[in-house]
Amino acid sequence: MISLLSEFAGGSFHLLLRVFVIVVPIMVVLELFEGSRPFRRLVRLWARLMAPLGMTEEIATPTFVGFLFGIAYGSGVIIRETRRRRVARRQVFLMSVFLSQVHAIVEDSLVFVALGAAALWVVGFRLLWAAAATAFLGAVAAAFARRRGRRHDEPQPAARRRD
Amino acid sequence: MTAEPPELPDLVDPSVSLAASLRRDLPRGIRSGLATFWSLAKAMIPAYALALVLEKLGVITVLGHAAQPVMSLLGLPGSAAVPLVLGYVLNVYAAVGAMTALHLSAQQITVLGLAVLIGHNLLVEGAVLRKAGMSGVGFGVLRALSGLLAAGVANLLMKAFS
User: Fold this and answer.
1) Closest residue, chain B, to A27 (C-alpha)
2) 8 A C-beta contact, residue A123 and residue A67
């Protein structure tokens, strides 16, 4: 019992120390630069990078924020953008597929790198994987929509409220 | 030719000096950093305690035996199923907490890390996607499966190149 408690205390301390050293500085830096003009330039650059996957500029901000901060932290922007503007359903789908495979790229990746994972794999391979998944599922969805004779590029009625 | 979109107004007031904006934003950044740290700690420490107790009680060994076939396809010990399941239900930090209690090699941490990074916090994040008009359940299943698939591919590639 004593050995279990001391293992728990020691393990908890190291775990918290690692998270503190990584997460707090990142949050401070992000807070400082979030609203700035360079950040918005980045969003525009991001839209250009995502264009080959079929994503347009209307979905760039929530995708970029989710990519950086995660689906949970970026949820405000994601839900607001998909409701406020009548974004095409296909765009929301592509964003969801991409973000479901890769998000919170800095914070989550660093936690695993701190644990001993190879950065090249948890960042580089995951990005390639997400791009491939988005291209593949985007093509599958387009094929389905064609078979049903629907135009999936049309704006959907604003997402239904479910709260 | 399409007209250039009008330049967006700058959120940072140019009349406010850099020092003044630092004075305003730095404490806010530190506060949000500490708040994030606190919410992460609240998720991680109970998960770490749970994983430690489950391990001492031998529950991890039982779960591990059940998940052995899937885990061994990924080059992982059966006990790696526990952080994976904790990650699905809770979050990345719960999974990391549970992984601390195991003894994995760097390659195993990378492979398991990919599975957890792609599939985690499925309940909370599924709710977000649902509010955006997508299927939360569908994306939960997609992430669990594609995470395992990505981990399997990465394991094979890493073996081939090492």
Assistant:
1) B33
2) no
Rounding to the nearest 10 degrees, give the CA dihedral for residues B128, B131, B132, B135: 80
> What is the number of domains present in chain A?
1
CB contact under 8 A, A118 and B56: no
pLDDT tens, residue by residue, B113-128: 999 999 998 887 888 8
CA angle A68, A46, B40 (to 5 degrees): 5
**Are B132 and A15 inside 8 Å of each other by CB?**
no
Beta bridge partners of residue A88, listed in sequence order: A155
The structural domain count of chain B equals 1
Residue of B nearest to A157 (CA): B133
Q: Which residues of B touch A125 (CB under 8 A)?
A: 114, 150, 154, 157
Structural domain harbouring A74? 34-147
Nearest CA in chain B to A41: B8
In the block, residue with structure tokens 């390639």: A128
Alpha carbon A5 to its chain centroid, in Å, reads 37
Q: What is the pLDDT of residues B63-91, one digit of tens each?
A: 767 877 889 999 999 889 988 988 887 77
The dihedral through the CA atoms of B40, B89, B146, B161 has a sign that is positive
Length of chain B: 162
Mutate to test the interface with A, among B102, B134, B145, B159 (most CBs of A within 10 A): B134
Domain assignment present for residue A152? The answer is: no
Q: For the whole prediction, is pTM greater than 0.90?
A: no
User: What's the rounded Cα separation, in Å, for the pair B152 and A49?
Assistant: 28
